[in-house]
Amino acid sequence: MIDVHNVVKSYRLPVQATTKMEKAMSLFHRKYTDIEAVKNISFHIEQGEMVGYIGKNGAGKSTTIKMLTGVLMPTHGSIMINGNNPYTERKKVATNLGVVFGQRTQLWWDLPLLDSFKLLRDVYGIQEQEFTRRLALFDDILDLQSLLQKPVRLMSLGQRMRSDIAASLLHEPKLLFLDEPTIGLDIEAKERIRQFIKMMNEDKKVTVLLTTHDMSDIEKLCSRIMFIDDGQIFFDGTQQQLKSLYGGVKSIKLTTENPTVIPSSVLDGIEIQMKSKHQIEIFYSKETNVSDILVPFFTCNVVQEMGIEEEGIERVIAKLFHSLQEKVKVG
Length: 331
What we know:
Elements: E1 2-14, H1 20-26, E2 32-45, E3 50-54, H2 61-68, E4 76-81, H3 90-94, E5 97-101, H4 113-124, H5 128-142, H6 157-168, E6 175-179, H7 187-204, E7 207-211, H8 215-221, E8 224-229, E9 232-238, H9 239-246, E10 249-256, E11 271-274, E12 279-285, H10 290-300, E13 303-310, H11 313-330
Parallel strand pairs: 3-7, 3-8, 5-6, 6-7
Antiparallel strand pairs: 1-2, 1-4, 8-9, 10-12, 10-13, 11-12
């Protein structure tokens, strides 16, 4: 489906002149420097995979997506999508590609949503009967019926995101790029969109590449994670592999009458966070005997509720960030 091989993307930027002499010289002979936004990355994504592509701002995610969609051409290396070059064969690739950017819309701002859908229907040459069937399918999950006659400019962010995702899948593409699809949404809207993405992936075998800073999206949707930093891919594997490499911590959530009463005997080697007035979360390593933590707590507190969980993906990713920062300092 997606083959990326030894891809580099460099930008040539002018060097800022600082002295009067340098400024005068730059009028005749300007100096430039090359900045590598993406540094020799390679990966393969099979049809039907749902992959999270994560990293800090400026890590190279957006540049990668722009190259995959054919907006930018790689400086070196090759990109193939279904056997087609997205830059030189952009039209072929676009017919099987859907794209959603959380900050931008592909819908017509002043038109009712249905008119935007009809324009996209004509662009992609979708038959009327098939168009009606697909709209009904999207309405079942995304609840679009009440929005069809509403201009896009009058929609809330959640309504617009639901509409944008439907628009990106109207032509039933085999590949979907999602950039921050749940940004700024409430819990209900996020869950509705996640369910729809998951359904399209499982039922229609749509390949999904998801970039987001919301680790809940990654944890609930993606079986595979690629982590990019400073233009290089530092991790490519499953959630479980990531947790085994950078995790190793579990947590206990306790709801007690007086969570501030913490037995001194359990403080060594654990991390305690206050979650609310009556709830604390205790983080401990896999090697720790849970009873060594719980018995003193049950002795000192009336425990009303308890739950044991694996370390969340957000903390694991934070450790990966920290690990890379430490390597940079040492280097």
